[in-house]
Amino acid sequence: MSDDTTTSFNTNNYRLNKKMRKKLLIYPKFQLVLLVVNAATITTCLAFVVFQIISFFNHMRELGVSAGFGEFHAYFKFIRLQEETIISNLLVALLLAIIFSTIVYVFLSHKVSGPIVRLQSFFSAIAEKGTFSKLSFRKNDFFDELPPIINSALLSVADLNKQSMGGEVEEGSGTDEAD
User: 134: closest CA among 27, 23, 20, 1?
Assistant: First the structure.
């Protein structure tokens, strides 16, 4: 491929990568499961805390009854107010924790999902075209050790094919460089 074609290929590839960055979920099946499990875990943990708080305030009510306070005594109003305040504050904390962890998990899941999506498209392109170009991932993606191993393995397989068929290694001339 000429330098002009390679530059055009890389420019088009860059535009596609910019569009992909704007997608919230790049591998929805994995990312949605991760987000649901995260929200369920946070909610379950908070449910244990709320249960303990309710148990504590029930115990405080029992102490009020055993002390002989009447049903409308200020002590019980105070206990009810404290319980309602704590539980409502915990529900706000739950909502904020789920929002915050969702943002963090979407960002983190992109670092895991990105390489998987890139591998799928890389191998699909090989299956379609019968040729390959250099595999690379984005700078901060996980699994950064995979591209050199895969590239080396594909070149070795191509060399073996070349030797057995007496032809040349057919590697694509453009590279899929990640941002």
Answer: 1
Among 79-83, 155-159, 171-175, name the most confident range: 79-83
Whether 159 is in a domain gets the answer: yes
**Could you tell me if residue 161 is left (phi over 0), alpha (psi between -120 and 50 degrees) or otherwise beta?**
alpha
Q: Could you give the CA distance from residue 64 to residue 163 in angstroms, rounded to a whole number?
A: 90
pTM of the model: 0.63
**Residue 171, SS3?**
strand
Structure tokens at 151: 């590239």
> Residue 124: which domain range?
3-165
171 lies in some domain:
no
C-alpha 34: how far from its chain's center?
Answer: 7
Q: Residue 156: exposed, middle, or buried by beta-carbon count in 10 A (0-12, 13-18, 19+)?
A: exposed
User: DSSP class of residue 56?
Assistant: H
